[in-house]
Specification:
The complex is a heterodimer of chains A (about 550) and B (about 325). Chain A is an alpha+beta fold and about 550 residues long. Chain A contains 16 helices and 25 strands. The chains are: A alpha+beta (about 550), B mainly alpha (about 325).
């Protein structure tokens, strides 16, 4: 009897599915059902698992998103900007020659494990970073240190770091080997957060080993991160892909308003949207711009961050010698209809780029105009250069969205149309982001390619220094006579002590890069968004995408 | 019998070994590699090359393979580089396995407890409403792609109606973990809210995953019962005046079950393919989801462990089915 009933039930429910999907739209209740968790727990949908919990060994946003809630640096960033403000240090002064910086530290600050935060802890942190050995002393593992400070104690590469001296419990002196515009802003990077010396020692924070085809990180980085922030580590349930942080009651500043912060790892963007709709998460990151309207319509808050990034069309003359001719590069620049791309392929608030730095950065050149869209001129220049009708090999990535590039294929198609309109033949190559795209582009196999950058802090060096500060870059500027001079000029600007003078140098460099060199073609700045459920407040969108959630209040 | 099993076991080892060579070569022939996933877009070509060398990925492929084999012999499959960087790949397999087993068991149990009785009843009442309905259902079950059905179920019952969770395996309630089987753990620790939460998360993915095995089991059972009903010995039994219950249980069911057991065994192997898709749709942290992620991030270590383990399981299940067959049907043993 029951057998036939169960079969009938299955048959009935399958018809139910088909029937319901047709009229599901009208069934929808405001706010959705699901198992919303109330009472001081904020659940955020993360796009990926953090690599480690020790931000010193990390480079990816998902790791920093978690560590940012638990850890703080000497320098912080003003809410909603990329400008430095006091963090664990209340003030700082450089010496006359710009090589020694004195930091006054905040008093009565404790790490989550009860260890005092003081000058001694600061120096232990810097010594720990500088004294990395083995796998830890490689660019692959400690990439942020390598990019910003250079070498380690082993002396294989020159290092920016020289010494750390305890003056008294609340005063620290940091010594540098050269002057740089990065300082002190770079101390706000999550990688250089202050961590508990006690916990780092107890759980062997520095024993990273290369094994097989990867790296094995110590217990500290996997299970016991300890900082000074308003939230502290709770647990990482790998079987359930959830990370739980707890409120830290002895926090020095304004205590957290939530008791618990949960990160639920949901790699698929549409799945994150559905979870928000169902009410099982109260926020997620990097919504597809296509969905912004629908999300707003459903009552969610789409918080648009200031655009602190750049999308560029990279050029590399290794496989396309024609690109060595400035005329050809300029022709490509005039062939691209930026305004059209911004209007049709990028979210609301995106702007066409006139240079490689966003307008909030000191050194942004106001006189530079967005390159004119002029197909006739482009054609003429190509003819003059003897490159009319040439074939360009143009690469774009699949399986990825980046804050500066929500839909790579659509952007590629728009640019391809523009290039074909001036008589060029486009030979496309599409590769998965991790499946060859980055490797092969960096190895110079692409003639034209789409890539970009999100800034770490508000200096011109963080943009153009990163791109062109070395001649063996992905644009292979060593192929050009101006590659080395550009590198030297960037170095010189970076180490100029006087701020006014430094800004002037960067303005001039930005102009030179656009008019004389043109190693690549800037396209746009695109504002990434963060989504919060209806009634959630207390999150300020950050251009650096490093929002903290401790002050979240759950409405409704 | 023992000799037979031993021979089959040896075969199994050979198959897995050959597969490991093919797999190793195939992975490394794919464009990209673990380095990109480790470094992201911020790295320079120089840094990438350094890392390639540090990880030994620049050595000849046979050297890499021999090293891998040497490590694997000690149970070391290397750390993950993409799924959970730094975590031992074997550890990832073991921590993800319970989720997939739990899901597959629930799905196959669903398919069996619905499919076998339904198939039997459909055969007994050939041409009836139940028969026609069942055949139609099983056609749909085979024809509709699993992931499409999974999306549909998710959209209707989770997103729109909100009856069931959209994704994941359990609400973040910090349940105690004992075995990694969430249902079992909840029962052992008496955390009934954890059991309830895990059950709710299982319903939709298990339903989606069970459709194909259900369809296949239903049809095989139906066909097999029809065959047996036409056999002479059933007619003889009826002529002898045996009660229909005895006929049903001793003669029809027992003989009809042979092909069904084989089918169920084979379906378990096929489940893994379905699980990859289903787990991905429901963000269900099992083997399938790890496999998809590992492929996306070119996590060689995890891919190697997962695929080899899956192959071993598949070969082993086949062996098990053959042995069971020999137990049920004495004729197999003498061959």
């Amino acid at each position: 009897m029951f057998r036939s009933r169960s079969v009938a039930a299955i048959a009935a429910s399958s018809f139910l599915v088909l029937g319901l999907s047709a009229c599901a739209e009208s069934q929808r209740e405001e706010g959705g059902g699901g198992s919303g968790s109330g009472g001081g727990t904020f659940t955020f949908g993360a796009a990926g698992a953090p690599k480690v919990f020790d931000p010193f060994y990390a480079t990816d946003g998902e790791t920093f998103r978690v560590s940012r809630q638990m850890m703080q640096g000497l320098v912080g960033f003003k809410d909603g900007t990329a400008d430095p403000e006091p963090g664990l240090a209340t003030e700082w002064t450089p010496s006359e020659d710009g090589l020694t910086w004195t930091f006054k530290l905040r008093e009565d600050v404790k790490f989550h494990d009860g260890t005092d935060f003081n000058a001694d802890a600061v120096c232990k942190n810097f010594e720990r970073m500088y004294n990395q050995t083995g796998a830890g002393a490689t660019a692959a593992v400690s990439q942020y240190w390598f990019d910003n400070f250079g070498g380690f104690k082993d002396g294989k590469e020159p290092s920016l770091y020289k010494f750390c001296t305890v003056k008294d419990p609340t005063t620290v002196e940091l010594g540098l080997t050269r002057v740089t515009s990065k300082f002190p802003a770079l101390l706000g990077l999550p990688s250089f957060s202050m961590q508990s010396p006690t916990a780092m020692e107890k759980y062997n924070a520095n024993t990273v080993t290369a094994q097989g085809e990867g790296f094995v990180f110590p217990e500290y980085a996997m299970e016991h991160p300890v900082g000074t922030g308003p939230m502290q580590f709770g647990s990482y349930d790998q079987a359930n892909k959830t990370i739980t942080l707890k409120k830290f009651d002895d926090y020095w500043g304004e205590k957290a308003k939530i008791d618990k912060l949960v990160f639920k790892i949901i790699p698929d963007e549409s799945a994150r949207r559905q979870e928000l709709q169902a009410g099982s998460i109260q926020g997620y990151d990097f919504p597809n711009p296509v969905d912004w309207q629908a999300l707003k319509g459903a009552g969610a808050e789409v918080k648009v961050r200031p655009a602190f990034n750049i999308l560029y069309l990279g050029m590399n003359s290794t496989t396309m010698p024609e690109l060595k001719d400035l005329k050809v590069r300029q022709a490509l620049m005039h062939a691209i209809n930026r305004e059209q791309i911004v209007k049709t392929q990028l979210p609301e608030g995106a702007t066409a780029a006139s240079q490689f730095v966003p307008d909030t950065v000191a050194g942004y050149n106001k006189d530079l105009k967005v390159p004119a869209y002029d197909p006739a001129k482009a054609k003429q220049m190509l003819t003059e250069a003897g490159a009319a009708g040439m074939t360009v090999n143009f690469w774009y990535p699949s399986e990825v969205t980046r804050p500066y590039m929500p839909a790579p294929q659509k952007i590629y198609e728009a640019i391809r149309t523009d290039l074909e309109a001036v008589g060029l033949k486009v030979k496309p190559t599409v590769k998965p982001w991790n499946g060859g795209y980055l490797d092969q582009v960096d190895a110079g196999q692409a003639g034209l390619f789409l890539l970009g950058w999100t800034g770490d802090y508000n200096t011109a060096d963080n943009f153009i220094g990163t791109f062109f500060g070395d001649t063996e870059n992905r644009f292979k500027t060593s192929n050009y006579p101006w590659g080395q001079p550009l590198k030297d000029a960037l170095q010189d600007a970076d180490s100029t002590v006087d701020e006014g003078e430094r800004t002037g140098k960067y303005e001039k460099l930005n102009e030179q890069i656009m008019t004389e060199y043109l190693p690549a073609i800037p396209i746009s700045h695109s504002p990434p968004a963060i989504v919060l459920a209806k009634g959630v407040s207390g999150v300020t969108p950050s251009p650096l995408t490093d929002e903290t959630f401790d002050q979240v209040e759950l409405g409704g | 019998m023992l000799r037979y099993i031993f021979r089959r076991l040896l075969q199994m080892v050979g198959v897995v070994f050959v597969l490991s060579i093919l797999l190793f070569a195939w992975l490394r022939s794919l464009p990209g590699g673990p380095v990109s996933a480790l470094l992201g877009e911020r790295a320079t070509a120089e840094t990438r090359a350094q890392l390639q060398a540090a990880l030994g990925l620049d050595q000849p492929i046979w050297v890499q393979y021999l090293k891998f084999l040497g490590r694997a012999a000690h149970g070391d499959f290397g750390p993950s580089t993409g799924v959970l960087p730094g975590v031992d790949a074997l550890q990832i397999l073991l921590s993800r396995l319970p989720a997939t087993i739990e899901l597959s068991v629930v799905a196959i149990v669903l398919a069996v407890i619905v499919g076998v009785p339904a198939g039997y009843l459909a055969a007994r009442h050939r041409g009836g409403v139940l028969d026609t309905g069942g055949v139609l259902m099983s056609l749909v079950g085979v024809a509709v792609p699993v992931f499409f059905l999974a999306f549909l179920l998710k959209y209707v019952f989770a997103v729109e109606l909100g009856w069931l969770p959209v994704s994941g395996r359990q609400d973040p309630i910090n349940a105690t973990r004992v075995t990694g089987f969430f249902l079992l753990d909840g029962v052992v620790t008496r955390e009934w809210d954890a059991v309830w939460s895990a059950l709710k998360h299982l319903v939709l993915p298990a339903l989606a995953l069970s459709t194909i095995p259900f369809a296949v089991i239903f049809r095989i059972t139906r066909a097999s019962v029809l065959d047996v009903l036409d056999e002479d010995y059933v007619r003889t039994a009826e002529a002898k005046g045996l009660t229909s219950a005895v006929i049903r249980n001793r003669h029809v069911l027992r003989n009809a079950m042979l092909p069904v057991v084989t089918t169920i065994g084979l379906q378990i192997g096929a489940l893994l393919a379905g699980a990859v898709l289903t787990e991905r749709v429901f963000n269900f942290p099992g083997i399938g989801e790890a496999l998809a992620l590992a492929f996306e991030r070119r996590d060689y270590a995890v891919l190697q462990v997962l695929i080899l383990a899956a192959a071993a399981v598949y070969v082993f299940v086949n062996l098990l089915v053959d042995v069971l067959y020999a137990v049920i049907d004495p004729r197999v043993r003498t061959r």
